[in-house]
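Anyone opening a protein record will find just a pair of labelled lines. A complete record is shown below as an example:
=====
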Amino acid sequence: MIVDHGCVVGNVSRTAIISDRRITGLSADVIAELMSELGPLWHQRHQARLASRPRKRAVGAGAKHRLVFVDRLLATLVHLRHGATHDVLACWFGVDRSTITRAISEVRPLLAERGCTVSAGVRLRTLAEVVDHLGASGKTGIIDGTEIHVRRPAAGRKDRDKFISGKNKQNAVKTMVVTDGEGRVLFCSPIKPGSCADITHARQLGLVKLLAQGPAVEILADAGYQGLGAQTGGRVITPPHHKFKKNAPDWYEEMHERQRKAHSSRRIRVEHGIAHLKNWRSLARHLGRREHISDTVQAIAGLLSHQQTTDLASARSM
């Protein structure tokens, strides 16, 4: 009777997670697509891991998984969306904490590798693919850096001060976000320590070379990227410089303010995209290990873009 009761609770929990978008941030259709896409891939990698080491009994022998793949996926989605601890998820799914930890560590990289969905069957996984997509579609791209607060590195670490953000004076890591003109997420870069400047991060990602040698695209950016415009032939557009250090004419102040606001009103869409990313609790404040943050950022970007694409397709079909 106890086992049967546990199975009923598991089924109820699974149904609640899938049917209520508030729990995962994803619709039931998107979750179904994730299951059909990632399930075979997870099983294939799991079998490869089992066969990769010396064994005393055949692959498949012994105890079976208490947590099937669909529950592993749902536990990972809840963790990413709400930052639920592994202990809480273990109680919810009726397994040990280590099982949840292992499940998340297996599913999160699969989600990170998917890339950002821009249309049915089209995904962008690298910055070069994003630039090519913007050039082919004729759309404007918008870039901005965002910081994610992290725990302070342990005392005595050689690179401890690198994580201190020069802007917020807090321990953080930084990622560069690229959206289109409508605020749809196209790319999130691997993380850098919080002390890295936005323009330095963009250069290290190869953005200057991609824009200089790639298709003609328009990229909007804030004042933190001033200087990229000259290096990319004017393809990166930043707010206008204030040419007068003091005693500027009134007409110039009015013109400068008008140009600055016009640029800001176009660039604000990337802030909306970042806000949607930060709705996922794991990016509002990361309390886990820093080596997992890049996978977390890219997994959430892929999930958000998939849901945005699905919502847009549904709206157009109505």
Q: What stands out?
A: The radius of gyration is 23 Å.
